Amino acid sequence: MIDSQRALLAGAIDYAGLFPPASLDMAQAAGNYRRYLASEDRWALNRFICPVGRLQELAIARGHGGDPWRIAAAGSGEPYEEAAAIARFNQDYYGRLRVEAIEAKTPDAHAVATRVAAHRGLECFCELNPAAPEFRSTAEAVQRAGVHAKLRTGGVVAEAIPSLELVLHFLTTCHDLGISFKATAGLHHPFCGSYPLTYEPDAPQALMYGFLNLALAATALASGADPARAAELLAAADPWSLTPDPWPLSSIEAGRRFFLGFGSCSFEEPLLWLRPPA
Q1: CB 190 within 8 A of CB 210
Q2: Which site among 51, 55, 78, 93 is 20 to 30 Å from 207 CA-CA?
Q3: Which stretches in the chain have pLDDT values below 50?
C-alpha cells in the first residue's frame, strides 16, 4: 500500500451495516464493528451509523468495556427533538457510546442546520438532492450555517443512482461554496462498474460509482482541476490509473478536507483493492 492510498482512506469509512443492502440485525452489526475496531484495518474505520430511534438498542448490543464507540445518528424526524434526544443519550451512556454527528434527511436543510448546530459538539450532515429545484438555495443555507452536506450515490434500485451530471453538479456546487461533504449508498466497490444492487443471488445489476471515483474527483476539484477532469475521474473504470503515481500527499489531504468519507454497509469490501494479489 502506498502512502497516498492510505491517506485517501484513513478514517474514511462509516460502517452502515444496519442499512441496505446488508440490513444486518443490531447484534450482527455491533459485533462486526467491535471486530473491526480490534483489527489491523482500524485506521480506515470511522463511525458506526445508527438510526436515532435505535440508539438504545445499540447501547444494549454494545455492552461494556473498551473505549467509547463513535456514533453518527441517522435522523428521520424533527431535527431539534432528535438532537435533544441525542444529548440525553450521550449523558446516559458517556464512556460507552458517544454520538458525535447527526445525519439529517429533510427538504428544509436550513432549519436542520441552524437547529442542530445549536447543540454544541454535534456535527451535522444535511442530505441534499442535486436534482431538486431548490438544491442551490439549500446548499447556500448549509454553507451559511457552517455544517456539512451529504450525497446519496445509490440504493437498492437502479433509479436511486444519480446521473454523472447530477453528481458533478453536487461536487462543483459544494466546492464553489466551500462545503465539505460525505457520501453514502452503493460505494462499497472501488471502481465505477456494473454491480449487483443487493446481495441476493439473482439481484439485478446497474452501473454504480466506486468510492475511488468519488474521492479522486473531489480531490481533483480541491487541487484546482476543472469540472471536465472531475467528470473523467467519476466515469473511469480505474480512476487511480488516470492519476499521478503516487498522487502528491498534499493533494490527497486537500481532497480529504473536501471529501470527508463515505458510508458503506460493508467495511471489508472497500479495503479489498488495497490487498496485493495472491
Answers
A1: yes
A2: 51
A3: 1
